[in-house]
Write a structure and sequence with these properties.
Length: about 270
């Protein structure tokens, strides 16, 4: 029986992934910063809840030790938070929190598991990034910075780990029906109000791909990535994300950005 370790498993994609793997006969170490949010998961015989706030390095060390003791096979760095607004409106704390949760924790957790995977010559590191890690949207500068960083980091990491039979994969979802938007930190600045509203209207206008996927649908993609045995690194997940990536490839990065600017701001 194989074992997966998941961060941010209390809700959304992390929770759906925990259930998908557990129902498929895997052991799941479902980590979350508030273990009381894991009541539903903990009633599943294949799921163990473990406390992990990914901004707490001591907890990372404890959680990794716990997982290695249980001979974990797959790690999914999934915990994430959104930060939206113009860059000049962000406080240092907001920027640091965003980088810590979405990027630094992925580095710290991956680094902690690598010696174990390398020595046993098998294992798979995965991270939930975002379509915003492959393209960009307005008012998401630091969010995109963290997600592009993880995409780049994992692609680079794949070169050094493949010789040890350790896989590296990213799941890059488009919109997910989850509590992500409710949890998103919004940093406003009056000077940008009208542009910010324009962006929202553009998203609602249907001129951008709009399909939001159920977390359960995207958990299927995570499962496929963990079990397909392919060397493939990047899994774009959700119809909206696939459309964006295809458009960027077809139009070229510069023209694609210009076209998005036209859709959002009419220029
Ligand atoms: N929703 C979208 O449209 C979307 C699109 C593309 C990519 N993503 C990415 O997909 C991943 C999952 O998001 P989701 O849509 O499932 O949103 P979600 O339901 O809000 O789930 C986010 C998870 O991250 C956890 N988390 C936040 N800060 C944490 C911390 N310091 N330590 C440990 N866990 C922490 C949350 O825990 P709590 O319950 O304690 O808050 C929650 O379990 C994220 O990496 C996100 O960036 C989301």
């Amino acid at each position: 029986m194989k074992t997966i370790f998941i961060t941010g498993a209390s809700t959304g994609l992390g929770k759906a992934t925990a259930l998908k793997f557990a129902n498929s006969g895997w052991k799941v170490i479902a980590t979350m910063r508030n273990p009381e949010r894991g009541t539903e998961l903990s009633s599943h015989e294949n799921i163990t809840i473990f406390p992990l706030d990914v901004t707490n390095f001591q907890q990372i060390t404890q959680a990794v030790e716990f997982a290695i003791d249980r001979q974990v096979d797959v790690v999914l760095n999934n915990a994430g938070v959104g930060l939206i607004g113009p860059l000049e409106a962000y406080s240092d704390e907001q920027v640091q929190q965003q980088i810590q949760v979405n990027m630094l924790s992925v580095i710290q957790i991956s680094r902690a598991f690598i010696p174990y995977f390398r020595q046993r010559q098998s294992g798979l590191l995965m991270a939930t990034t975002s379509i915003a890690g492959l393209i960009t949207f307005p008012f998401g500068a630091v969010y995109s910075a963290t997600k592009w960083a993880v995409e780049g980091m994992y692609e680079s990491l794949s070169f050094e780990l493949e010789r040890y039979n350790v896989g590296v994969k990213t799941i890059s979802p488009g919109g997910i029906a989850s509590s992500f938007r409710d949890n998103m930190v919004i940093a406003p600045n009056e000077a940008y109000n009208s542009a910010f509203n324009q962006m929202y209207h553009a998203f609602l206008s249907g001129k951008t791909p709009t399909k939001v996927s159920a977390a359960e649908e995207l958990a299927e993609v995570v499962f496929e990535a963990a079990t397909d045995g392919k060397k493939q690194i990047r899994y774009v997940a959700g119809e909206d994300a696939k459309t964006y990536v295809q458009q960027r490839l077809t139009q070229g990065a510069e023209q694609f950005r210009n076209n998005l600017a036209e859709i959002f701001f009419g220029k």
